[in-house]
Amino acid sequence: NPVDDAAAERLKATFDSEELAAFLHDGVDKLQRREELVKLLQSQPWSDKTHRYFLTREQEYVGGLEAAVGIWQQMRGERLSMEDGITMRSLAYFPGGLELHIGMFIPTILGQGTPEQQAKWLPLCNRLQIIGTYAQTELGHGTFVRGLQTVAVYDEASKEFVVHSPSLESTKWWPGGMGKTATHVILMARLFVKGKDYGPHSFVVQIRDLATHLPLAGVSVGDIGPKMGFNGVDNGYLSLDHVRIPRDAMLMRFAQVTEEGRYIPPPPDNQKAAYATMVYVRATIVRDSGDFLSRAVTIATRYAAVRRQTATKLGEPELQVLDYDNVQQILLPLMSRAYALVFMGRSMMDMYHSFDSARARGDFSVLPELHALSSGLKALSTDIAATGIETARRQCGGHGYMLASGLPTLFNSYVQNCTWEGDNNVMYLQTARYLMKAAIAVQTGKPLTGSAKYLSDAARQPNAK
Amino acid sequence: CQVAAPEDWRAPAHQLAALAAVAAQLTAQAAAVLARAGGGRPGVEGEAWNSSSVDLIRAARAHIALYLHQNFIECVEAASSQRKLSAGPAAVLRQLVALHGVATLLDAAGDLQERGYATGRQVALLRGEQRTLVRALRPNAVALTDSFGYPDYMLNSALGRRDGNVYQALLDSAKSSPLNATQEGPAWKPVLEPL
Lengths: 465, 195
Fold this sequence. Notes:
Mean pLDDT of chain B: 95
Largest interface: A-B, 99 and 84 residues
Order of helices and strands of chain B: HHHHHHHHHH
Radius of gyration of chain A: 25 Å
Oligomer: heterodimer
Strand content of chain A: 5-15%
Largest sheet of chain B: none
Helix content of chain B: 55-70%
Number of strands of chain B: 0
Largest sheet of chain A: 6 strands, mixed
Number of helices of chain A: 13
Mean pLDDT of chain A: 94
Helix content of chain A: 40-55%
């Protein structure tokens, strides 16, 4: 190019981008710390990204695990904070077999285990002597958790549970390190005590020998094959043939089964308390949607600024692609959506913390509203981000099809968000249920508060039906 | 609606009123469909619910789209009024907010007109306003990507690098290709030479 377009673009700006960056990252010190962590990562062989786009699936799997263990060891060796660890994970972005160990296995034991169970499992988790994951979804049962078929039958004689996969479709499928990495799973299974079905409960089940890493007797486990993205994390299947586990393998902070086989149901507010975890996960999904769309928009906009195509008159420089009407009419609205999602993510995390504080006081009054919003926001934000990443990729022409652009990997690893933690259509329907209840309330003259309050206002319009 | 000129569509009040009207219309429509499917009684379970899901999803999306935009407005106004941002970044964020509202409303253009909330002319004004806002934001496009604060290491993108040196980055990346390990490539001798 005749001029340094990237530098020229920055001279055009009417505001201080560093000030806005500091605001969005909660201070200059956070940005500086991130730079330091980038330098640390660049000095480590396991976080070198030079060859990232040329890896086979097997190399990706091994490399992802090396990166996860590398970050873990850095944190322990250098006594880095959890925040530093999360930032390094985000910077390196090499998902590996510890994703679910850190993201779900440990939090579930913390949230659902008794103090004794936490004392038993957490030290092993923290030293990586065991690696855990989740085993909820079955080949034939996804979002509808109540439809799970895997059973855990209590045997009073031996004081054990017998966990079993009764059908082909009850084979667990979990794309989170279950096939080859995990030694333990949090198994969701229907609890049977004295012939009575108490529905799905959580159990810690060892699936591999800690010395040999071979599957234990009665356990069939392996990798079910490549995924669209996120291939550093293996894609596991698991079936159990009458495997016996001790009574204390059932996570019993809430519901319990006594030695003599008496079922003690969870306290009434337990289910409401469990929503806190769900709301937290959804809040992080909303937050990440802004992050991923922002990355895609950054790539596409910067490239459109330095890419020049076609001169309008002979002898004149070719135009910056960003100056084509169709390109800017796509990229800048996309930019606005990315910023909207970034702010929504921040608000959603605030909402979660506020709910968590209220929950500690036994106040669950905001739960219906929060449930409706978190469901719908999970769906809409992931829809916008997934569609937006692909839109950004298309603005990069043929180069956007290259992995080196960063966009195909971004899309392939992101788009799963539209179907995990509740398929988006199901999530919208949860919001719709709240709306229909609100509509019925309006019809009966009840006042509305919260996000659906506008329905009351609409009903007061002269031509309202 | 009360919009008479393109710039009227920038006003948060007009944007929120229009998005709320769409959400209310779609909710009322979904409730009517659900009631019909349920033989006059709107229920939130069962067959009637399943046979109304298209309308229910449309209503939910509109409700959340309204909430998302409302949140964006409130966050930017709060940051500005609490002086967490100086005038420059605040002004650019307000333009982004306006553009987000306009873009969201354009997605709902059919719904805006279907029940007569907006006329075809008012939707045309909306489209014109999007063009104006995009042009206004154009000089800040790259600076707005800088504010996201992504280091090159994190993006790992030849096209998205901060210094704009994209073609050199693509060629540097090619050095890692196993196909370039030899000049003749891995298939020439075993596959093509016998021909």
